[in-house]
Every structure is written in C-alpha cells, then in structure tokens.
Amino acid sequence: MIFGKKSSIGNVFYDVQCVEQEKKKSNSILRQLSQLSRRSIESLSSTLSSPRTPSPRATFSDYPNPCELILLSALQAHIISGDDMRNCSTEIQALTLCEKQKLINFFKPEGDASGIIENNAFKAFNCSNLSSDLLKEDGSELLEQLWLKLNSLVIPSLQSMCFPLIEIDTSFDVQTLILTAFRDRVLAKLLQDADREFPQLKSILLTILVETEDIPTSLRTKIDICLGKSPSTSKPRYQKKIRSKTDSCLSSKRKSVSWMDDMQDNSRKSSTFCA
C-alpha cells in the first residue's frame, strides 16, 4: 500500500513537470518559428547547385514575420488552406513600406524565390544538377508534373497572398516572376543540349513564350527545336541573276536612244552626200 502511494505521488509530480515544460515551449513558439524559417532558407541556399551571392534585401533572414513560413510552403507546392492565405495577406497588408519592398525583392530574379523554384526541380528529378539528359525516358513526364504543380498550386496561392504588394509597385506580377524563374533556373538548363522535338512539352514552351519577356536568343532557339520548327535555312551563296522589269525598261530605253542616234547619223551622212 505504501509503495502504491509513493508511485502515485511520483506520477503526479512527473505530470506537473511535463505541464511546466509545455508552458515553456508554448511561450517561445514564435521565436522557434522565426529560427526555423531562417534555418530553412540557409539550408536551401547551401544546396543550390549554382553558387551566387544573395542580396541581403532579397532574403527572409532579416524578415521576422510569421507569414514567411506560409510563403515558403506555397513556393514548395504545398497545399495552403484558405484561412492561412487570408491571414498571410492580412499580415502583408499590415507591413511597412520597407518590409513590403523586401518581400518584393525576394520574388525578383536575384532573390531566394528563384532558388526555391530550382530546388523543387532538384527534388522532382532527384538530382543536384539539371541537364538535358534528364529529359530522356520519363523525364518529360516529371517536367509536366512539376509544371502542373507550379500552375495549379504555387502561382494561385502566391497570387492570393501577395496582391497587397501591388500598392507600392504596380508592375509587381508574381505570376510573371515565378514563370521567369522557372524559365531561367529550370527550363533553360534542361533544354541547353536539346536537339529534337518534344511534343508533350508544347503547352509548357508556348506558355513561356507568351507569358515571359526578354527570352535569351539561345533559349528561344532551343524552344523552336523542341517545338519541331526547322531552323532557318541560309540563302545560297551563288544565285542566278534574274532580270527585273526595271532592267528591261532601262535596256529598252537605251536601245531606243541608240536607234535615234543611228538615224541622226544617217541623216547627217545623207545631207553631206547631197551637198
């Protein structure tokens, strides 16, 4: 009996300790979320294949807002609930002008959003470097699945949350920025050595041609090849000269002038002979 009482008292004491520990954890939850977001960005930047110098104004490292985790999840093609998107847009609306500008820079080509889009491709193809060899066998299907997530999850979610940023930058278009990042960081690398047609990628390539601007000439050439367009043939070095109507008119005019000259010469000769 005594042993049983001690055991029950010990269990109660253990439960009290657990409750106190849970309270301490709940008090520091915001701090943990902020640290988690910073660690996720740092680990993501270290895994990118192409080294680059991140801009301090285009990262989340000095942007301690809870909505950053939701934006990161959206960029990674996770499903975001309607309540979370609504709360995130409300928090973005309440940001200062400086904080909103930092968020805009985050989505620009030099920001970390482009790196996250590229990292999604690394995960989809299970690789650390993107090349044209990945399009062999079932690579085209993997690219189609990645494209489907980009258009059905990533872009719609970001549009629903980031629309308050248009107030300070009317040219801000998160759809164009994400598609441009996909074009430069994913598609350009997958097509760099492409030399044949990919009919299954037609919708992707046409969308990139229509929705993005300033497409590099080399990438446009590769897109034309993948669409089955034959390269423009150069003109033959030597061509047979075709006589134009202008030339015929000029030549006939010269002939008429020459004929008149002959008549004048004959008239002169006849007048001289008669004299």
From TrEMBL:
Residues 244-275 are annotated as: Disordered. This is NR LBD domain-containing protein.
